[in-house]
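Entry 12.
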Amino acid sequence: MTHSLTIRRPDDWHLHLRDGAMLQAVLPETARHFARAIIMPNLVPPVVTGNQAAAYRDRILAALPDDMTFEPLMTLYLTEDTDPADVAAAHASGLVKAVKLYPAGATTNSSSGVHNFDKVRAVLEKMAEIGLPLCVHGEVTDANIDIFDREAVFIDRVLDPIRKTTPGLRVVMEHITTSNGVDYVKSHDKDLGATVTTHHLIINRNHILVGGIKPHYYCLPVAKREEHRLALLTAATSGDARFFLGTDSAPHTDANKEMACGCAGCFTATNTMSLLAEMFERAEALDRLEAFTSLNGPAFYRLPVNEETITLTKGDEVVYPTKIESGDGPVTVFDPGFPLHWRVA
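Predicted 3D structure (tokens):
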């Protein structure tokens, strides 16, 4: 039985850090274990230009504790007014590693997202030309589409047409939640990857709803049926280079999670590596944890793997804080509902 595992230091290819007091509180929770992260741009106002991305990166680095090392990988928020030349310049400078597509109204702070996809065609064509990845929040927002079907419909209505009309565009399907997403990625061997979150490997929609509403399991895209969770777990633990970790760790204060119309997001930065080790061990795939957390993402983004390593050890139950305190209020740490025995040494 394996009780110790050393892997390259992992990266997080989808992370929310927020800003201000919340940034100060949650950044150390990621930087403790992760070397780099793709930083989501859905602030208020959103990060839409290269200059705004540079300013946000400076604020992140200023919030980093002196004894930690961490590299924020910046993204731009795609709007119908995004300038292709600004995107190209931000990418050429080395600052911006991806552009994020939010269908308008799909998730937290997405009201500035795209309504008319024809209006962003020039940006997408420029991105294909320069090799800059497009990260997509893969849900349609039509009121007549059931929330549990929005990812599958997005693939058919939006994603597949975009990819067919923009040859060479490199796309990351972020936080996939369905077997439809898994199957779509597996059916294409070029220019397509997908991130899988920690929490979607653990919870299905019953966890949110059975026995009372659990607001700290509510996320977008919402967790689906058990068959979909199992499809995600199989993909993540397969070693397939098209699937890699993007936690989508999303801090909200308890007050904003537990209100009558609560915010979507699970905060997993604190205990993700323990959670993943537990799930990969259950799947008899510990030998493929490094690929999922440390190798596949850099390969897709055409970045070097980290030289540093971390060691996970298995022993007595690990106790994590139930909450992280911030200047905005407490943030609840994701609780998987089962004990954890793997820790980063």
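Annotation: The chain is about 35% helix and 15% strand. The two ends are 18 Å apart (CA to CA).
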